[in-house]
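Handoff note, outgoing to incoming analyst
You'll be picking up this chain. Sequence as last confirmed:
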Amino acid sequence: MKKGVQILVYYGEHSDKYWLVDTPQRLEAAQRKLFKQLDEQGYYNDDEKHISEARAGDIYAIRWLLVAHRRREYEDWDVEEALDPCIN
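Most recent structure output, in case you need it:
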């Protein structure tokens, strides 16, 4: 029996954000939103590897950049399990 759901947690500068990522479609949507947010906040350089592709919507380039920047300050994120309190 499934005890929880997957969430993407972004450890932000001012607050954390949480996205439900219990399906491949939701994971992709959350990664796109996180990339867009970080890009708009200036965390990516115009000459960075794969940035043009990511800005054009290429999910593989978006994932590459998110992973490459993952442990940097204010760019850290992880996929975690949120437990359902109604299930033992």
